[in-house]
Amino acid sequence: MSMRTYAIRRFLYIFPTLLGISAISFALIAASPGDPIQIRIGLFMGEQTDYETEYNRVGIEIGLLQKIGQDNVSFNIDMTTAGGFSLDTFNVTGPKTAYVEFTNVTLYLTSDIARTFEIPDYGISVDISAGGSAAVSFYANESSFNDQHVFIQSFEYSATGIIGNGEMIVEETQYGRINVFVRYMQWIGLMKRYIWEERTYRRSGILHGDFGRSWYWTIDGRLGKAITDIIVSRMWYTLFLTTPAFVISTILATVIGVIQATRQYSIWDKGVTLASLIGYSMPTFWLAKLVMLAAFYMFNFTGATTGDAFKEPFILNGRFYLFLILPTITLVLTGLVFLARLTRSQLLDILRQDYIVTARAKGLSERSVIYKHAFRNAMLPIITVVGMALPGLLGGAVMTEGVFGWPGLGTVFLTSSLQRDHPMMMATNFIFGGLFLVFRLIVDLSYALVDPRIRY
To answer: How far apart are CA 194 and CA 142, in angstroms?
Structure first.
């Protein structure tokens, strides 16, 4: 099998794998404890708002609830010369089903004199003879949400001798949770979902390049921000933090690992090994607190960010770079420890091989033996670790960003998890999962470039 065939096949495997990852993630997120509707009500509910009404409204808005309405409604209108008529009340008939976008309304008209009944908004005009009756039907769509009503449709009506405004109100108090499978199909984009801000049903999902709207971050206190906009805006903060930390930690870890391997059991090797064990066993958030505490005692500076550090354009803001220092140091230390130990162990294993002994016996310099022959063959595990760390450049460091208040994608993921912001959690999981699979493929292909013995 050629490398091109192998690469194409592995690339095609990404899509079903990513679909499986998203399905499992969606099921786990949906089954997690906590009610997102209650959390959102706690954020935005006013003191005078009825809880049940607000609960149902928010559930419809974020797509967790569906209205249990009618496909068909009908009511009787008795037009008399003395009293006229009103469309404020009517009798509901027909089967109750899942809420549909349009409701079929039937009017049963009776009159004691000859009249012409009209609803211009729907193009309805019917002549009724004296003492006669008529029936007209039309589709009414939802125009607004009010308390427990499925739809409220206001319009102007007129009949001979009677002119006024009517209002059709379908009263319905039943709401139900949307099935998890249906919600997943809607998230992918294979099924239509109700778009609250548009008051319509349409397909929108990842197949249409739409991750939806956040349940927590809002534009005007109510309408959620587009998730794509949030990710793009926070991505730059994350890249400015993780990229230099990744480069510095990789270079330092490689150098330290090589020095340890070439000076095995020296004081340097033992000291670095002890420090590595301590650092490896230390939680990231605790290390971040220690770095913050040390900076406070030495420079009276904690590194915890404030709002003015991130005013646009943040690249030109001097305070932005000041608050970048401590989280970068934390990430360098956390990434340095494991990679340095891995480099040391792999290089020591290679230095004991027969071909290294032969190279030294031929009189090659120690520098040539290590960097030309040994280090290249020791790079395979290192490439794996480094390649798998690359998606973290965009994924951010959740704990580090959380401790220092850095407004990157790691903080977004942590906040969305605490606030049960399911669309944001799914979007970040989907993006990070896709990046991991892509870089996994790149790492596998790079093996052949490092070790000519590997064939696909």
So the answer is: 12
